[in-house]
Amino acid sequence: MKLIPSFKIDFKKFKELDKWMLFSIICIVSFGILNIYLATKGNYGIFYPKKQLIFFIVALVALYFVLASDYNTIKGFTNLFYGGSIVLLVLVLVIGKTVNGAQGWIDLGVISLQPAELAKVATIMMMGRKLEEMEGNINTVKNFFILAIYAIIPAALIVIQPDMGMTMVLFFMVLGVYFIGGLDKRVILYGLGGMLLAVVLLWNSGLIQDYQKTRITSFMNPDTDTSDSGYHLRQSLIGIGSGGFFGAHNSYSNDGTGGFASEYVPEVETDFIFAQIGEQWGTVGAIILLSLYGLLISRMINIAKNSKDIFGRCVSVGMVAYFLFAITQNIGMTIGLMPITGITLPLVSYGGSSLLTTILSLGIVLNIGMSKKKIYF
After folding, report:
1. Backbone φ, ψ for residue 100 (5° rounding)
2. 341 in any annotated domain
3. Does pLDDT of 355 surpass 80?
4. Per-residue pLDDT tens for 306-326?
5. Cis peptide before 162 (omega within 30 of 0)
6. pLDDT digits over 56-75, tens only?
7. What is the pLDDT confidence band of residue 265, given thresholds at 50, 70 and 90?
8. Which of 10, 257, 306, 340 has the most neighbouring CB atoms within 10 Å?
9. Whole-prediction pTM value?
């Protein structure tokens, strides 16, 4: 196998593009940029939305080339992509900068790269490629553990950072690959049990710091942590509650700087962007956003069902699992139903590295949908 496969472009495929999926992506990102602006304009002007818009434009240009690339070319780069992401995960432990307690970022000047974002996509691609080589035969001890090793390596490196939120994201994406691969449902249940055991062991291992434990447990009783995550949650609930059904469009202060969420909810442009959405647009805005997410996810499911090979189905379902988990976790933590883990709202929260990676990952799914000849396994 060649280390670097030949690169092919096929512009004729664009007639097969899932336009509704592309429409949902553009709408969700645009809505996110608008809310980043509303959340930060009082203190930072257009700094954050401008940067997010630039990243979006760059992502769209890169997306064009991903869509135009030959499907087999993308598959051919899987080994290189996976290996590169592992190297970056090791590198970030040496030279990475710490953000919110996790040493998970490499400062490149114009952008801070989060290798874990790349690794989560590379992992499901690698598992899909290997499962295809196994001809879909996942229910053997050997094949199960071969796939597990490809998931455990990046997961362990992410745990060391430590980034529990991204570890959870990767787990559910891997679980999605195992599920669509036809793994015996009892084994999946054992896997969930194993995850619970791993959580208990990690909790008592010393890798998780006290402040991280507090962030996770404070959703059960915000009053136990009045200065950090409990404060985050209380302020988020106030912001969302003030939006009502139609949104508090007049919630801006007299000088027009911002409403409650933008002024008093910490990390409102990233982890707690849904508090801004809830205040500004109310229940109606939340329903519109969730409907757009629903459209995006349904199109990915359709692509998975009609994929021509195992690799395509695994990658598509892995991305479905990512969106379902990340959306549930992020919105759940802003309304007090889930622990605060630092998982951002896909395509909406501020973050260039996340936006670029997510759009390019969705580009791979779109490319899968542009390839025909479905097979069954």
Report:
1. 55, 40
2. yes
3. yes
4. 998 999 999 999 999 999 999
5. yes
6. 999 999 999 999 998 889 99
7. confident
8. 340
9. 0.88
Q: For residues 355 and 347, is the Cβ–Cβ distance under 8 A?
A: yes
For residue 99, CA distances in Å to 12, 136, 228, 342, 365 come to 43, 40, 15, 11, 30
- The pLDDT of 94-98, averaged and rounded, is 90
Residue with tokens 């499962």: 131
**98 lies in some domain:** yes
Q: Which two tokens stand for residue 361?
A: 């990952």
Asked whether residue 241 is assigned to any structural domain, the reply reads yes
* Mean pLDDT computed over every residue of the chain: 85
Residue 208 corresponds to which amino acid?
I
* Least confidently predicted of 51-65, 255-269, 354-368: 255-269
User: Tell me, what amino acid is at 154?
Assistant: P
260: domain range? 11-369
Question: How does pLDDT run across 147-167, given as a tens digit for each residue?
Answer: 999 999 999 999 999 888 899
Total number of domains in the chain:
1
Of the candidates 289, 279, 268, the residue with the CA atom closest to the CA atom of residue 349? 268
